[in-house]
Amino acid sequence: MPTVPLLSDADAHPVASAVFEDIRRTRQVADVNNFWKALANSPPLLQHVWERAKEVMQPGALDALTKELIYIAVSTANSCEYCIHSHTAAARAKGMTSEQYAELQAVIALASTTNALATSMQVPVDQSFNVIS
Amino acid sequence: MPTVPLLSDADAHPVASAVFEDIRRTRQVADVNNFWKALANSPPLLQHVWERAKEVMQPGALDALTKELIYIAVSTANSCEYCIHSHTAAARAKGMTSEQYAELQAVIALASTTNALATSMQVPVDQSFNVIS
Amino acid sequence: MPTVPLLSDADAHPVASAVFEDIRRTRQVADVNNFWKALANSPPLLQHVWERAKEVMQPGALDALTKELIYIAVSTANSCEYCIHSHTAAARAKGMTSEQYAELQAVIALASTTNALATSMQVPVDQSFNVIS
Amino acid sequence: MPTVPLLSDADAHPVASAVFEDIRRTRQVADVNNFWKALANSPPLLQHVWERAKEVMQPGALDALTKELIYIAVSTANSCEYCIHSHTAAARAKGMTSEQYAELQAVIALASTTNALATSMQVPVDQSFNVIS
Amino acid sequence: MPTVPLLSDADAHPVASAVFEDIRRTRQVADVNNFWKALANSPPLLQHVWERAKEVMQPGALDALTKELIYIAVSTANSCEYCIHSHTAAARAKGMTSEQYAELQAVIALASTTNALATSMQVPVDQSFNVIS
Amino acid sequence: MPTVPLLSDADAHPVASAVFEDIRRTRQVADVNNFWKALANSPPLLQHVWERAKEVMQPGALDALTKELIYIAVSTANSCEYCIHSHTAAARAKGMTSEQYAELQAVIALASTTNALATSMQVPVDQSFNVIS
User: Fold this and answer.
1) Cα E78 to chain centroid, rounded
2) Sorting pLDDT into bands at 50, 70 and 90, what band is B130?
3) Would you give per-residue pLDDT tens digits along chain D (133 residues)?
4) Selecting from 3.40.50.300, 1.10.3720.10, 3.40.430.10, 1.20.1290.10, what CATH number does the domain E60-122 have?
5) For E7-17, b where at least 16 C-beta lie within 10 A, e where not — what string?
């Protein structure tokens, strides 16, 4: 259960409703996801997050699928159930194959292990990693 | 300061020394990084992690640079200073451009924000994310 | 499902039952929440946590609502579903308005973003932040 | 050491330099902090984060000091060394007393404890926390 | 709901099926847990994790129950619902008493509190903790 | 650098000074660690944490060394540099061998990996883990 009501067009502030409309048009979907319906309780926050997501997730120096894989990685490390589901679905929609998903999981698993080991031993950073001359 | 001594070939168990040699040969480097020198205090763990890293990080369904970006994302979410440095250096060595790095950071930043929002409102997962028919 | 049975007065140790009674009296509620019923499996731990909560959450240099907002912030960053729900409910009971809740979320979202960015770039701490002369 | 060079006006892109100027003017400071100098490696990200920080952290339904306390709480739970220092300094600059700081720490400490306990026992959320009728 | 189908012997790759068989034989159980059925979507990852779990969790310098307690502690700090449940059940199966469980929780709770306090105050590490002469 | 001054007997409140004395006597040490000197800025918090640590960490259903191993595990997952160092030193002082430390690290590493995998696939909890009949 959410801590706020999930708002639909009927209940939402006009600012939120306009964002809903932009999401449906941009993504070519019949309805917006629960995340946006929950965020609609704060129209300015909804507007900010949607504008930001639209800008950041578009293809650029990194392609759209790579960005989704990074999103899944962060969401997993942060234990965000909703985000893991929404971005795994998004990655599939953008063409993620089973092989790519399996390799993503293998990298997340390895990173989680070496993160724990480097942290538990407090390994000092090598000078060779220094990018600043 | 580390919680264990950083071992060199002179101090390390022959099993660890053989792993060091394999790392130097595989990566074409003069010396192994501190992470491996610290892990050498447990030769079986060193051997396991190195074998796993060699296998997981090679190009496959995902290319080597994409894997490094995912590694940085996980390491950032887990606040692992050493791993952030070592894998940012590795990503640069594998050709990460400034533009790619900036976009990686933008995705990590956005994911961190929406993770926090979805978690704080405990947004229920949409049925449409369900992959199981 | 919990990893321990949720105990009621009928099942609980007299020490736990006395804590239940104090919670009901202090908070003027008919029944204690599931958290306390679960903790009752270890009466000394129940007693300790309840005494601590009573002392820490009372108004002092910070008012009771501000303390609840801080509690929600920590619980969100730690992904504690139960605590997010219980302390969001508590904050509402102490008068948190929709506007305050929206601003709380905006600050949590911003902090999560800048935490990730400062960590990913390992920004060195400014000397000007030093409180020790 | 940072993963990127810390840029000053002399090295920064004009867009970044304009943000630096706005930060100095808005905060009435002689120089910007390292966080902004690091972010300047991606002028659009710098601009976005600064605009967002300016908007979110201004007094509203929550006062400026309360927002800093929430920021410290999130940064602590996320182990962000830089952010803990910068926002503890900011909170002091906005009038945080020693008594308030001690109570903030006590709430963070208590929340961390009960987060761990509720999570370890996987306590089911009480129906009474439900805000949706 | 999972992000992948849970595979049984009927659906799984022969490599995965062989791992299932080894799990059933080693643990003397009629069926494998959902974790393995989900991992079976990537047979090499399933094989790797199972081999590693078999090796790491066997009694050695630390007994099998102590290893489960450590596992619960990590899983709690990482908010992994599945792992908390599976390893609390495993610890009980290996003889964890109610008294031991209560003390485990008390240590996890205390560590969570002091972790937060040491981090919030950024306490400098004592030289006396240095293991390297 | 810490966010608060590290207090010695000369600077500390009498309540804090009495706690310092109890720590030195109980642990048979010449001086208290930095954690306590930092906490002394809030004498009631110092007193509370010390009393709690004394009670929780004493041998009971779990022996003192096992408790330290659990403490290291939690501190690692929470990325608490200070706590990792202080409790690794404490574990060594209580007799932790190199073999035990290596196995502790192997369990933490494995748990971190399976936590990430179970979370990334959102594996549903098996009914067989249910402790409540």
Assistant:
1) 11
2) confident
3) 999 999 999 999 999 999 999 999 999 999 999 999 999 999 999 999 999 999 999 999 999 999 999 999 999 999 999 999 999 999 999 999 999 999 999 999 999 999 999 999 999 999 999 877 5
4) 1.20.1290.10
5) bebeebeeebb
Q: Of E84, E113, E121, which has the smallest distance from its Cβ to D120's Cβ? A: E84
> Domain-by-domain residue ranges, chain B?
1-58, 61-122
Contact of F4 with chain C, judged by CB distance below 8 Å, is answered with yes
CA angle E12, E17, E23 (to 5 degrees): 130
Per-residue pLDDT at F119 exceeds 90: yes
CATH fold group of domain B1-58: AhpD-like (1.20.1290)
Across the range E29-38, mean pLDDT stands at 97
How many C×E Cβ pairs under 8 Å? Answer: 23
C-alpha torsion sign, points E102, E108, E113, E117: positive
Q: Which CATH number fits domain B61-122: 1.20.1290.10, 1.10.580.10, 3.40.1180.10, 1.20.1260.10?
A: 1.20.1290.10
Question: What class has domain A61-121?
Answer: mainly alpha
Of B127-131, C126-130, E80-84, F128-132, the poorest mean pLDDT is in: F128-132
Instruction: Using alpha carbons only, give the angle B76, B80, B84 rounded to the nearest 5 degrees.
Output: 60
> Is there a contact between F98 and B3 if contact means CB atoms under 8 Å apart?
no
| HEC readout, chain D | CCCCCCCCCCCCCHHHHHHHHHHHHHHCCCCCCHHHHHHCCCHHHHHHHHHHHHHHCCCCCCCHHHHHHHHHHHHHHCCCHHHHHHHHHHHHHCCCCHHHHHHHHHHHHHHHHHHHHHHHHCCCCCHHHCCCC
CA distance B131 to chain E (A): 6
Q: Is D54 on the interface with A (CB under 8 A)?
A: no
Rounded percentage of chain D residues whose pLDDT exceeds 70: 99
Q: How far apart are CA F31 and CA F9, in angstroms?
A: 10
Q: Check whether E131 has a pLDDT greater than 90.
A: no
Q: What is the pLDDT of residues A59-85, one digit of tens each?
A: 999 999 999 999 999 999 999 999 999
Q: Please give the average per-residue pLDDT across A100-112, as a whole number.
A: 98
Residue with tokens 């997993």: A76
Most B CBs within 10 A among D41, D42, D76, hence the mutation to make, goes to D42
Looking at residue C132, what is its pLDDT? 72
Asked if the Cβ–Cβ distance from B106 to D49 is below 8 Å, we say: no
Mean pLDDT computed over every residue of chain D: 97
- The CATH number of domain D60-121, selected from 1.10.520.20, 1.20.1290.10, 3.30.70.980, 3.20.20.300: 1.20.1290.10
* B42-56 pLDDT tens trace: 999 999 999 999 999
Q: What is the 3-state secondary structure (H, E, C) of C69-130?
A: HHHHHHHHHCCCHHHHHHHHHHHHHCCCCHHHHHHHHHHHHHHHHHHHHHHHHCCCCCHHHC
CATH code at F61-119: 1.20.1290.10
The CATH class that applies to domain D1-56 reads mainly alpha
Asked if the domains F1-56 and F61-119 are classified in one and the same CATH topology, the answer is yes
